[in-house]
Specification:
The complex is a heterodimer of chains A (about 170) and B (about 425).
Chain A (H helix, E strand, L loop, with lengths): L6 H10 L2 E5 L8 H11 L3 E5 L7 E2 L2 E2 L13 E4 L3 H13 L1 H4 L3 E4 L6 H9 L3 E3 L4 H9 L30
Parallel strand pairs in A: 1-2, 1-5, 5-6, 6-7
Antiparallel strand pairs in A: 3-4
Helix pairs in contact in A: 1-6, 3-5
Chain B lengths: L5 H7 L26 H8 L14 H14 L3 E5 L2 H12 L5 E5 L4 H10 L6 E5 L5 H4 L6 E7 L1 E2 L4 E2 L2 H11 L3 E4 L4 H4 L9 E5 L13 E5 L12 H4 L10 H5 L3 H14 L5 H12 L1 H21 L3 E5 L9 H7 L7 E6 L2 H11 L4 E2 L9 E3 L11 H6 L6 E5 L5 H12 L1
Parallel strand pairs in B: 2-3, 2-4, 4-7, 7-8, 12-13
Antiparallel strand pairs in B: 1-9, 5-6, 8-9, 10-11, 11-14, 13-14
Helix pairs in contact in B: 1-3, 3-12, 4-11, 15-17
The chains are: A alpha/beta (about 170), B alpha/beta (about 425).
């Protein structure tokens, strides 16, 4: 079953979170995780890459951590750029560090659905999003992705804020 | 997310007040290029890492509104505009095919597409096999290990044949290839092919979408439902791309990867982009698409019923008539109307056809369809003149055949015009 989320929920998350730990961030500029990290950094998010193979190095100028338990607080959201199987233990690590990091959101990337892990995370009060990309959602809800002819499924009768300032997702 | 109705989407989808000026109507961004914020942003744009505008051959903010509007009306994930319907078809196949590949097409097809598929595409070493749009099994019999796509028109030009989309989609599913549907004659008001299993929809937006015969335009819509990686048959979408530092389009863009690849590779390299002026004219047309299509279909049926009763007429090939063999298909696929393009035969043969097009005073004698104005053509003396008598009959353009595209004028005036012109 493909999960469905109201636009208002996604917009609220993208407006409120500031620090995102990206588990599975890649230093390879051709990888989707690199694209997403580059885009979200440009939009003013604080992105912390997590990748044991790259620990201590930098990706896009950001220090890479080996695992979630090494991350400095606060982290508002964990974005899982790994497959559904790997998402299980990553979710458990996120739950174990939830209070220390002041974690609010657990996000699994496009194509990643792990219902059991989602249930465990939701039981601790985390908001869970699966099978979505924060870059695409940001582009869709801000209006910017319309430049690529993408059907945003949004009708808006007001003049938007300039996209460079975050469009309709402009944060305080 | 709200599920807006079709008529609301026709007016609003893709458009919002201009971010710079507040202009309510989509401005014509008459510019070839766009300044970069800085060198880093320019690099990110060229790498497709951020969304933005580079050069109007690849994207333009006015054209983008039209792309999103049509994608929304068809219920797809994304759209891509092209200079014409033919250009749109070319971009679709350029993205899907490799040399030596095959595709299967319904033989009930716009004559221009018969040429494009059979002759122009053969120069790329892409080969078409023909099937019957009303018999899904005829497609299954043409499937080989080289098949990469199946193509048909939802309502076929010129005969008004209504294709068995559900059956053909099942064949595509079994063959593991995408179904491409040209939805020009139906428009998404009458048929939304994605709901019947199509993976890609193409349009000549010159016709009913634009609706006023004033601008050429084409469009592609992607359903977002096809798994491009499953078979390994679509390297453009799944393999590392050398011109974008090794990115894989399907992995990176997911359910709108086809349109991004068609834009960033085929449109970039083929160059058949749509002018923003034309996009605005099409957008203005689409706002009234539901009203016009309703009237087109009402008028088309009334004219067809009158023709069917007239002694000078041998036959009327309109699926909206209860006596027509495809009437059940009309009730199944497009109950709101059977379209407004169809053929009929005159008892007086070739001369009667010539006389009719010479005498009409409201119908315009020209080679187009889907205009507010009623249009008429006698294929045997014009579009199909070069063919042999035998081939003319085979393609549905025998000596007695007349094609109508019924407009939105007062129907009594249209009937009176045909009546006086048939003599």
């Amino acid at each position: 079953m493909v999960p469905n989320y109201p636009d208002a929920l996604i917009a609220r998350i993208l407006r409120s979170v500031k620090s995102i730990a990206m588990v599975g961030a890649s230093p390879n500029p051709a990888r989707p995780s690199y694209f997403a990290m580059k885009y979200l950094l440009d939009k003013g998010f604080n992105i912390i890459p997590v990748n044991p193979g790259q620990a201590g190095k930098e990706i896009l100028g950001q220090k890479v951590y080996a695992q979630i338990s090494d991350l400095p607080a606060p982290v508002d959201m964990i974005d899982i750029f790994r497959n559904a199987e790997a998402a299980g233990p990553i979710t458990d690590e996120a739950i174990a560090n939830k209070d220390r990091l002041q974690l609010k959101v657990l996000w699994m990337q496009l194509g990643v659905i792990n219902e059991e892990a989602a249930k465990r995370a939701e039981a601790t009060g985390l908001t869970v999003i699966m099978n979505r990309c924060p870059k695409i959602e940001y582009g869709r809800l801000s209006g910017e992705i319309g430049w690529f002819g993408v059907n945003r499924r949004v009708i808006d009768n007001r003049k938007p804020f300039a996209f460079s300032q975050g469009g309709s997702l402009r944060r305080g | 997310m709200a599920e807006y109705g079709f008529d609301t989407l026709a007016v609003h989808a893709g458009a919002q007040p201009d971010p710079a000026t507040g202009a309510r109507i989509t401005p014509i961004y008459q510019t070839s290029a766009y300044v970069f914020d800085n060198a880093d942003q320019a690099a990110a744009l060229f790498n497709l890492q951020v969304f933005g505008n580079i050069y109007s051959r690849i994207m333009n903010p006015t054209v983008a509104v039209m792309e999103e509007r049509i994608a929304a009306l068809e219920g797809g994930t994304a759209g891509l505009a092209a200079a014409s319907g033919h250009a749109a078809q070319h971009l679709v196949f350029h993205t899907l095919m490799e040399p030596g590949g095959e595709f299967i097409s319904a033989r009930q097809l716009y004559g221009g597409s018969v040429n494009q598929f059979g002759q122009a595409f053969a120069k790329y070493d892409w080969h078409v096999r023909w099937a019957d749009a009303t018999e899904a099994d005829s497609f299954a019999r043409q499937v080989t290990d080289k098949t990469r796509a199946i193509f048909c028109e939802s309502i076929a030009n010129p005969g008004g044949v209504i294709s068995d989309l559900e059956g053909i989609a099942r064949v595509a599913e079994q063959a593991g290839v995408p179904l491409i549907v040209d939805n020009t004659l139906a428009s998404p008001y009458l048929i939304r092919p994605i709901e019947w299993g199509a993976h890609i929809v193409v349009h000549s937006a010159t016709k009913f979408l634009g609706g006023h015969g004033n601008s050429l335009a084409g469009a592609i819509v992607e359903a977002g439902t096809f798994d491009w990686a499953k078979s390994g048959k679509y390297p453009t979408l799944t393999d590392e791309n050398p011109s974008y530092h090794g990115i894989r389009f399907y992995e990176t863009f997911g359910d709108f990867a086809f349109c991004v690849a068609a834009r960033a590779l085929s449109l970039r390299d083929v160059g058949s982009c749509l002018a923003p002026q034309n996009a605005v004219l099409v957008l203005t047309g689409i706002e009234t698409l539901p009203l016009r299509m309703k009237r087109h279909c009402e008028n088309a049926l009334a004219v067809a019923e009158w023709l069917a009763r007239d002694q000078r007429v041998a036959w009327v090939n309109y699926a909206g008539l209860e006596s027509h063999p495809l009437y059940p298909a009309h009730r199944k696929y497009c109950p709101k109307g059977a379209g407004s393009v169809y053929t009929f035969g005159l008892r007086g043969g070739f001369d009667a056809g010539m006389n009719l097009v010479n005498r009409v005073r409201i119908f315009s004698h020209l080679a187009n369809i889907g205009d507010t104005r009623s249009l008429i053509i006698h294929p045997a003396s014009t579009t199909h003149r070069q063919l042999s008598d035998e081939d003319r009959i085979k393609t549905g353009a025998g000596p007695e055949v007349v094609r109508l595209s019924v407009g939105i004028e007062d129907v009594k005036d249209l009937i009176a015009d045909l009546d006086q012109a048939m003599g």
